[in-house]
Specification:
Blueprint (H helix, E strand, L loop, with lengths): L2 E6 L3 H12 L4 E4 L13 E3 H4 L10 E5 L1 E6 L4 E5 L5 E4 L1 H11 L3 E3 L4 E6 L4 E5 L4 E9 L6 H6 L6 E11 L2 H7 L2 E6 L5 E7 L3 E8 L4 H14 L9 E8 L7 E2 L2 E3 L15 H17 L3 H27 L1 H9 L2 H11 L5 H15 L14
Parallel strand pairs: 1-2, 1-11, 2-8, 5-13, 11-18
Antiparallel strand pairs: 3-7, 4-7, 5-6, 9-10, 10-11, 12-15, 12-16, 13-14, 14-15, 17-18
């Protein structure tokens, strides 16, 4: 047997699984089709509580600390809300993913694409596009929303996906100063989606995600809405990527093969964020392999991640379906917005928010937050 585990994909799910397996003394091989570090389209917002799961420092790859959110409706009204201090930071995914991978005790083969895999009751055999062959006790598919591993073993066959377009926009001192330490969420447009701005050290990451628009429509909406914020996306390279959704409890392993991260559909359906769940699922996959109990893997993923993402999908339907009412009843509601900030910081869940929503909405209505407009305050 060449390895105890082969991991396909070196994103946050694959790199995290490689780290925890390596720390446990497992022989690990990581196959990544791109050269690492590789660019990945992503806003890059990271709850810092997630980073404390690792016993090493992430400060070298963190770009900005996010101190506040601008929650903007498409008519220009905004609510400004302060995050818990130090709760959220931003990172570029090429640096973030590679940083975890560098700490892993693993054999990393980049520019090495998976070609085939087959398994029996004792092991998994893989071949690469270059013709190299390896065998392993277990394999983790962490190769993204369009996972080749999932396709080969016939998992996630009824998956639901949206789409996103993201760009890294150069910014002068004035624009960087305006958005420094501030993340922007804009909703009410596009249809069944939202736009975002995340501050980085020397530029802005901007994007749009939707479960109802085509790529051409998203590009036009992105340009128009960013222009309203003084951000010019013309000339910036735009990158599209799929948004996988966890819609139901389903098998996420078959035989000795497991799925993690976007390959398992573990993306936040309201915020479009996937780093947190990718890291969590990578660790759960590693623990399942160490326990040699893959039957428990699906149950843990659903109970610890998937069930809350289903609550998140309900929240997304409400917010995207009734954006104006949600702006008035939720975004301007101090009790609700505090819950949302805790959620963004990784300190609460969609399920807990749902339990408290009736009382929060009722008690917070009479004490609504002011909604500012450009150049004017209510």
């Amino acid at each position: 047997m060449d390895f105890d585990a082969i991991i396909v994909g070196a994103g946050p799910a694959g790199a995290s699984a490689a780290y925890w397996l390596g720390e446990a003394g497992q022989r690990v091989l990581v196959l990544e089709k791109e050269r690492v570090p590789r660019y990945k389209a992503c806003g890059g917002g990271v709850p810092t509580a997630l980073l404390r799961a690792f016993p090493f420092d992430f400060s070298p790859v963190l770009e900005q600390t996010v101190l506040q959110l601008r929650l903007r409706f498409h008519d220009g009204r905004e609510v400004l809300a302060a995050l818990p201090p130090g709760a959220v930071a931003t990172a570029m995914r090429d640096h973030f993913d590679y940083h975890i991978l560098q700490q892993a005790r693993a054999d990393v083969r980049d520019a090495t694409a998976l070609a085939t895999l087959r398994q029996n009751e004792n092991h998994v055999e893989v071949t690469t596009a270059a013709g190299d062959a390896f065998s392993t006790r277990y394999l983790i598919g962490a190769d993204g929303a369009n996972s080749l591993v999932a396709q080969i073993v016939r998992l996630r066959r009824g998956k639901v996906m949206g789409g996103a377009i993201e760009a890294e926009v150069p910014a002068g001192d004035g624009l960087l100063s305006e958005f420094e330490s501030t993340a922007v969420f804009l909703f009410g447009t596009p249809y069944q989606g939202y736009l975002w701005v995340f501050p980085k050290a020397d530029h802005l990451s901007v994007g749009i995600g939707s479960f109802g628009l085509k790529a051409g429509q998203m590009k036009g909406t992105l340009k128009r809405e960013m222009a309203k914020l003084g951000i010019d996306v013309d000339g910036s390279e735009q990158h599209g990527h799929p948004l996988p959704i966890y819609v139901r409890r389903e098998p996420l392993h078959k035989g000795r093969v497991l799925l993690a991260g976007d390959a398992a559909g573990l993306m936040d359906p309201l915020l479009g964020e996937g780093i947190r769940r990718a890291v969590e699922s990578g660790r759960i996959a590693a623990e399942a392999i160490l326990a040699q109990d893959l039957a428990r893997f699906d149950r843990r993923i659903h109970n610890e991640i998937g069930s809350d993402l289903r609550w998140g999908r309900l929240w997304a339907r409400v917010f995207y379906g009734c954006p104006r009412a949600c702006f008035e009843w939720a975004v301007r509601n101090p009790r609700f917005i505090d819950r949302f900030l805790q959620l963004f910081a990784g300190r609460t869940t969609y399920g807990r928010m749902a339990l408290r929503a009736p009382l929060d909405l009722l008690l917070g209505w009479s004490n609504r937050l002011p909604a500012t407009e450009p150049g004017r305050r209510e």
